Automatic annotation (TrEMBL):
Entry GO terms, CC: cytoplasm
Gene this protein is translated from: hemC
Protein known as: Hydroxymethylbilane synthase
Species in which this protein is naturally found: Solirubrobacter phytolaccae
Keyword terms of this UniProt record: Porphyrin biosynthesis, Transferase
Alphabetized GO MF terms: hydroxymethylbilane synthase activity
Length: 270
């Protein structure tokens, strides 16, 4: 059998993730680096800007599998494709890098993190900061912000041992955070890669996001962990938010809706 072609973005983190998938495969693989719209312009568009070019290459037969950070994958995949495998999940939580003194300037580009930070600490000044992990760390070192909030999984995969894990109740991570998603054409597989419990958790988290018709433009966190699910929905300024738990995706969705999640999401979209 010829080598499987794994499509990936060219960032340091994306390449680390693609190499991790290649190492798990039962067959030989080669990496194919593809530039996405998100790589060209990080400030515009939705999640599709990170995966659209990879999906197009997949459908055109230019690659056999596409490797993504699962939290960047839209709830609706390109027709004719599916998530065929997920390696074992890494740490799903966020970490803070730097000093959260009173009134600290905290950098993040995620509406979810902005909402959660302000729900937890209204005294903080949350500012938008973009770039890859090392770029953001350099901006903090240069004094642009006092602290950053980043994904623990990304820092760990890059060998950056920095930060304190944010475990306060409101810090529910993005659906799929810490998961590598391997996308393929329907009927294909990634032999040796899939971790069943991780795949089931990802499916459940994405199911809640779809049910609430949420997007990357809405402050929402969903986590399936140790047989329970938690969900956070809030306004970007943290002035109003909902935190619920459920036994499964259907139960969590029902509880979030009953608590007013749909009204909050409509307010964000208005």
């Amino acid at each position: 059998m010829s080598k499987l072609r794994l499509g990936t973005r060219g960032s340091a983190l994306a390449l680390v993730q693609a190499r991790a998938v290649a190492a798990l495969l039962d067959v030989d693989a080669e990496l194919v680096t593809i530039t996405t719209a998100g790589d060209v312009d990080r400030a515009r568009g939705d999640k599709s800007r990170w995966v659209g070019a990879l999906e197009a290459a997949l459908l055109a037969g230019e690659i056999d599998l596409a490797v993504h950070s699962a939290k960047d994958v839209p709830s609706e995949l390109a027709p004719g494709t599916e998530i065929v495998a997920t390696p074992r999940r890494a740490d799903p939580f966020d970490v803070v890098v730097g000093d959260l003194r009173e009134g600290a300037r905290v950098g993040t580009s995620a509406l979810r993190r902005r909402s959660q930070l302000l729900a937890w600490r209204p005294d903080l000044e949350v500012v938008e900061i973009r770039g890859n992990v090392d770029t953001r760390l350099a901006k903090r070192e240069a004094g642009e912000v006092d602290a950053l909030v980043l994904a623990a999984a990304g820092l760990d995969r890059l060998g950056r041992d920095v930060g304190r894990k944010l475990m306060e109740d409101v810090f529910v991570p993005a659906a799929g955070q810490g998961v590598i998603a391997v996308q393929g054409r329907v009927g294909t597989s990634a032999p040796g890669v899939d971790h069943a419990a991780t795949h089931a958790a990802l499916d459940a988290e994405r199911e809640v996001v779809r049910a609430l018709d949420a997007s990357c433009h809405t402050p929402i966190g969903i986590l399936s962990l140790e047989g329970r699910m938690r969900g956070y929905v809030g306004l970007p300024d943290g002035s109003s938010w909902i935190l619920e738990e459920g036994a499964d995706a259907s139960d969590l969705t029902r509880r979030l809706v009953a608590a007013g999640a749909e009204e909050l999401l409509r307010a964000v979209s208005a």
